[in-house]
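User: CoA transferase, Nocardiopsis gilva YIM 90087:
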Amino acid sequence: MDTPNPQSAPSAQPLAGVRIADLSRVLAGPYATMLLADMGAEVIKVEHPGRGDDTRSWGPPWAGGEAAYYLSVNRGKRSLAVDLKDEEGLAAVQDLCARADVVIQNFRPGVIERLGLDYATIAARNPGVVYCSITGFGPEHEPEGRPGFDLIVQAESGLMAATGEPDGPPSKVGVAMTDVLTGLNAAVAILGALLRARTTGAGEHISVSLINAALSSLVNLTQQALVTGADPPRYGNAHSTIVPYQAFPTADADIVIAAGNDALYRKLCAVLNRPDLADDPRYATNPDRVAHRAELVGEISATLRVRPSEEWVKLLLAAGVPVGKVRGVLDAIRSAEAAGDDAVLGVEHPVAGPMEQIRAGFRLESAPGTAATDGPALPPPLLGQHSAEVLRELGLPEERVEAMIERGAAYQHTSTATDTDTDTDTGKDVPR
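Assistant: Predicted structure for CoA transferase:
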């Protein structure tokens, strides 16, 4: 945008000065833009003035009336809540896109063109724009415009067929993994296109789909299927081509052991005090162990059951054998923090108050959203929290901004933490 964000300051963050018009909603697009915001980009999240992003209502659980789902992928953004059916509201968003370095959207095919927010229209005003379209099944997929939800794509991509116990039904991954993978692919592609734009001045239209992100994520399984001409079988918590590489029961909890080569296997046998397993020719090499998987796993499981998990983890780590305890989500977060991984960052939310959030999976010393620096990350915005200031930055005079808010074409959130007495479990009295 031509007018800088008054909240911004000169910064060494990697994406400082990059402005993103985020027209996406739910998970894949918002996750991508949150990662970019973590690296210093200015992200303006465009939302419906009445309901906002779909995930704002995806609770419980709630924190100060805000859905935990929404909070998980919208850190570091500003919220502009405008009605795209209003002529002036639509014009404001068109202007926003014309002044942005990046536009990202996941509207249904056809809708974005009717709004005049498609790549061709925006690029005519903004030739250097990096424009990212996210869809379920891609622009060439038949039937055209097929809806793509994570659950559907997990099924259609083979991810579900590859997940689950060998003698059980296919199973989805515990989170919307294809959305997360799509968000990561979108962020990577945007960064590449931004680099090209900075060196050539040329913009680009990026297409990212859940189905292609999911298929590419299956890596060795897709290659195995192409090489053999057959579907890879399910192995549950085991590995298809490495043994032992799976979850094992102990006296009190499951642990995972990853003996990925022959040397690690022999170290494992030493810790287990099972020299017979190390010397047995049936288990001498990894191909041998794969061929005799059932017998070996049975022997290892029987030995591990005699001691509790913490003892085995300590012994195996000391011997250099990769091992981990199967943990619940909260236990995993606290364990990572206790081990010094700095997995959590703190933000001060205007309604929910002090809040912990999970950092991005990468660390940059120059980016407060990814590493511990002296710059705090912005919390996920309230619906319409920044509508008036963004509209003013776009050049609208104060009387027009006020008129838009008055007639409902825009929504400006004015409540504070004292405006609601929301129970964090029930989500009652959520300000909207």
